[in-house]
Amino acid sequence: MTTPDLNLLFALDVLLAEGSVARAARRLRLSPSAMSRTLARLRDATGDPLLVRAGRGLVATPRAEELRRQIGPVVQEAEALLRPAELLDLSTLDRVFTLRTNEGFVEEFGPRLVARIEAEAPGVRLRFAPKSDKDVMSLRDAAIDLEIGVAGETGPEVRIQALFRDRFIGAVRSGHPLSEGTVTSERYAAGRHISVSRRGREKGPIDEALGALGLQRTVVCMVSGFSAALAMARASELIASVPERHTAGARAGMHSFRLPVTTLEVTISMLWHPRLDADPAQRWLRDCVREVCAGR
Questions:
Q1: 290: pLDDT confidence band, cut at 50, 70 and 90?
Q2: Under DSSP, is residue 212 helix (H, G, I), strand (E, B) or coil?
Q3: What is the pLDDT of residue 82?
Q4: What pLDDT digit, counting tens, does each position of 272-284 carry?
């Protein structure tokens, strides 16, 4: 039995990540023809075409998708074995880490995270990138170090770790009629509301929950962030419905109440590319984020 060429594993990892022979060739510093020959060898070794033509591009076969989920950890472990052991000296660490998240996370957890990092590694700086950067910055390209938020559809190679769960609550100014007595679904629906949506949507899960009870709320304005919603509610009779943990500090001095309808909790997670798994500084950064979110 012929011993397989394990170098093909690294080439396969890059090919499946790039989905392009030309891009894989550039990344591995090979000629396109050499990369094509490598793909041919991989097809012979696996007995599968792996990448097939679809229009001008290439798409992965089901076998390739299965391999993509398996090969990442194998390559990462192999690279870690060949990487010199390194002790992280936080006192001399000089790095800029980019975290992509929404303004609510920055406002609520940012000060504590910066204080934690400054105390341990004074040479480290944090850059908080807005969610609007999503189209131009990616985990795969290492343009960002961590993504923090509700995990949507991601590539199969992306690592995900849950940080905490959050639920929506209501917030009104001190002295608002809803600050006294029981907030029933009828009283809540009868108020004038602020809708928060980055996409400008007027209705969402809260409206669906009210609709199931035969109720409908009146949305008088829409904003793109929870901070803006709270600022407007603080200075008016409007009602803001916001995530509890994300807005604890921003709601200081306001009256908060549990929503009289049931909505699903959301899980806030951090996401990163597996190429950063073994990096000591990245692991320390993830530990800091996790512990700050846990209140430690």
A1: very high
A2: helix
A3: 73
A4: 988 888 889 999 9
Residue 211 to residues 137, 174, 221, 243, 273, Cα–Cα distance (Å): 38, 28, 19, 21, 40
Q: How far apart are CA 222 and CA 233, in angstroms?
A: 12
The pLDDT value given to residue 84: 64
Residue 94 CB neighbour total at 10 angstroms: 9
Q: Phi and psi for 8 in degrees, rounded to 5?
A: -65, -25
126/281 Cα distance (integer angstroms): 13
Q: What is the DSSP letter of 79?
A: H
- Structure confidence by residue, pLDDT tens digits, 240-259: 999 999 899 999 999 999 99
Residue found under tokens 């060739």:
25
H helix or E strand, kind and range, residue 60: strand 57-60
Q: What is the pLDDT of residue 219?
A: 94
269 pairs with which residues across the strands? 149, 162
DSSP 8-class letter at 179:
G
Task: Give yes or no for a contact between 231 and 240, defined as CB atoms under 8 angstroms apart.
Answer: no
Distance CA 164, CA 181 (A): 30
Angle, alpha carbons 223-207-152 (nearest 5°): 70
Which pair of tokens denotes residue 83?
């990487």
End-to-end CA distance of the chain: 55
